[in-house]
Amino acid sequence: MEFKKFIFSKGALLALAVTIFYGVFMISIYFSGYKAIPDKIKDLPIAVISNDSDSQELKDNLVKKLPFNTIHQKWTMDKAKKELDKRSIYLIVEIPKDFSNHVQTLDKTAKLHFYINESNPTTAVTAMESVATKIGASINENILLNKGKAILTSAQLTVLKEQVAQKVSATPQAKDQIETQAEVQKSQIETKINRTYKNLGNSFIPVIHKTNKIPSGMNHSMAPFFLSLSIYIGTLMGATIILGTYTKFAGRIGRFKSFAMLEITVALISVITPLIIVLLAQAFNNFDSSLITQLWFTHGLELFTAMNINLIFIILIGQLGMIINVPMMLMQVVAGAGLIPKSILPSFFKGFSTISPCYYSIQADFNVLYGGSGTGDLWLKLFYVALVAVLLNLLAVTIRKKNLSGESL
């Protein structure tokens, strides 16, 4: 009887509901968020730039065959490189001047240039490297070798056929001997051309240029993601704990004074905690110590913003606010764009990234650690999110005049 009461109690039923809720929520978030790879790689924008007026056909063929929906063709290289640095595009394919001339000259090496910004999620970098390799192999084998080899072989065999016909016409009695000699010559021609084109296999080289290079190792490529998420998860628990102190003091000194003290305390935590975490990360990854100040500022701003976001629902509905905050934390993993570029995220996560502290801190970390532009703009937008979160908390304090037990604050 007692066992039956226990398993049908509110606590047991709530535990069941919570485990189902978070299980379904996590599966929904991660499966919907990461299904973008590899199907949505084609939505990453790139640029194809030709500086060779005689290679228009090659450029048109590349644009036609490349598996991307957005291909910028009219930019200059300077414009394309700036957009690559800003992560507005993810690959530049450059056909350099005199490319076609070098293709047709035996003692010249034709080079097709690929530019990839490594200061990006690993999925994007790997996808662009794969595309560059495939393009190089396709041009090398299909355009330069097979077609050229076929044309040259056909031309020389046509000449040989005409010579045989002339000899047979002049001396019909030696027809068999002439044709036998022709077969030997034909074999020699094919052998010579095969040998020549085997050497020509190295006459084209795809040159891949990587900007903002990231040191090898997942610990480096994932550093922005790990740093930002570690800060955010800490604020998830920290907000719950500090609410108790706010509630305690609000009953004694008033909720607005207590809220002011709460924000000051959060600001102090935002100074101390990120410094410790950044120094620990520097010890593991051994990045330049001159970057510590910028990383400290980035994650200090992230912590202050994230703590205030997590406080909104806890101030309004107490501990039950975690029911909202935990899913929001899980959504940061996807919307932060540390694993998948924002441009190919599903629309929901793309929109959520605009209010995601992790998105701004992850992108700023990529810039600070490995290179990229727009860091100041990212900081400013994160500050705006923080400001809105503080104002919403002030509104929540104004609305909630009593604690959850009904006592006045």
Automatic annotation (TrEMBL):
One of its GO terms (cellular component) is membrane. The keyword Nucleotide-binding does not apply. GO terms for molecular function: ABC-type transporter activity. The chain crosses the membrane at residues 12-31, 225-247, 259-284, 304-324, 344-362, 382-399. Keywords: Membrane, Transmembrane, Transmembrane helix. Residues 19-397 form the ABC-2 type transporter transmembrane domain. Pfam families: ABC2_membrane_3 (PF12698). It is found in: Membrane. It comes from Vagococcus entomophilus. InterPro entries: ABC2_TM, T7SS_ABC-Transporter. It is a multi-pass membrane protein. This is ABC transporter.
